[in-house]
Amino acid sequence: MIKTGLTTTCALITGPSLRRLSSHAVFSGVQGVLDQLNSSGRYSRCGIHSGESSVGKYGAIITKTQGSTLDSPVVVILGWNSSRGKHLKKYSEIFEAQNFDSICVPANPFNTFFRAGTMVKKIGLHILDLLLELNCQRRPVFLYAFSNGGCAMFFHIMEALSYPTEQFYQAVPVVGTIFDSCPINPNISSLKATKESVVDMVKSPILKSLVWCSLTVFVPPVIYFNSTVKRFMSDLTQSPLNCQQLIFYSKTDRFAPYQDIDSYAQARREKGISVRSKCWDSSEHVNHYREHADEYLSELNSFIDQCLIKFHSEKEL
User: 60 lies in a domain?
Assistant: First the structure.
């Protein structure tokens, strides 16, 4: 039986019971390493004690599991637009069950589409501040991005870590990145899908119409003239962040064309990056885990094993 490392929550956050993990061995290749690390002692930073969670700036939920140590891995869950803590919790719990600390940050659609180079960048830099406060300079870090919202935050974190002119250049060791239902090319041909992805979250018919019309008017200028949006896909493809990558997507996702993701994955492979991808014939946007739980967990667990084994073997050199 897998020990869950269940968290005690602060600020009236209560998480659901840990979802039963797949029968595949979870992070089996590094369990012995993690057990040794877990014996090195507990810690308390950011005012959060082991076994607690807290809500911070921009809705960030920081969780420190009871078994985590100064060397335990950390996962940053970058949520989709209008996601909430309870949505992201089912993903962070996969990692928390193995004594990973986690940071979950939901995305705001207004920021994603209209403040990509300002507010989203500010949030990305705040996440890096949180990682430093969690003493992540030598801890293996995973970035896990969902849809447009999560990928927009990922973009600014990636830039901040990758270039010598940036404040957070190589500040934390990112050992693996995971994309779910992204990345997609934010061009004019994706405008309809972009509008549908936002309008689908609105319940009122009248408000739906207003949001649709507003997006029709205001999004095209952003696509054509916003410097961050214009260079988004090319810079993401050419990123110096050369850690291993895993991508989940499907051929029936209305909001994330699989052709865009295929092209991105191939371009990264041509740069020599190790990219694993799982494309299903059918599953909905950011719903791949729910519809293909066993396969999803198997791919994810294997990827995490692979990344941590590489990190610890390189650390010993």
Answer: yes
- Looking at the structure of the chain, the number of domains it has is 1
pTM of structure: 0.79
The answer to whether residue 193 sits within a structural domain is: no
Going residue by residue through the chain, which has 317 residues, state the pLDDT in tens, using 9 for 90 and above.
Answer: 333 333 333 333 333 333 334 333 334 343 333 333 333 333 344 555 555 678 889 999 999 998 888 899 999 999 999 899 999 999 999 999 999 999 999 999 888 877 888 999 999 999 999 999 999 999 999 999 999 999 999 999 999 999 999 999 999 999 999 999 999 987 656 666 666 766 776 778 888 787 768 777 766 766 666 778 789 999 999 999 999 999 999 999 999 999 999 999 999 999 999 999 999 999 999 999 999 999 999 999 999 999 999 999 988 76
HEC string of the chain equals CCCCCCCCCCCCCCCCCCCCCCCCCCCHHHHHHHHHHHCCCCCCECCECCCEEEECHHHCEEEECCCCCCCCCEEEEEEEECCCHHHHHHHHHHHHCCCCEEEEEEECHHHHHHCCCCHHHHHHHHHHHHHHHCCCCCCCEEEEEEHHHHHHHHHHHHHHHHCCCCCCCCCCCEEEEEEECCCCCCCHHHHHHHHHHHHCCCCCHHHHHHHHHHHHHHHHHHHHHCHHHHHHHHHHHCCCCCCEEEEEEECCCCCCCHHHHHHHHHHHHHCCCCEEEEEECCCCCCCHHHHCHHHHHHHHHHHHHHHHHHHHHHHCC
Q: For the domain that residue 39 is a member of, what is the CATH number?
A: 3.40.50.1820
Q: How far apart are CA 188 and CA 64, in angstroms?
A: 42
The answer as to whether 4 is a domain residue is: no
List the domain range (segments joined by +) for residue 174. Answer: 28-185+226-315
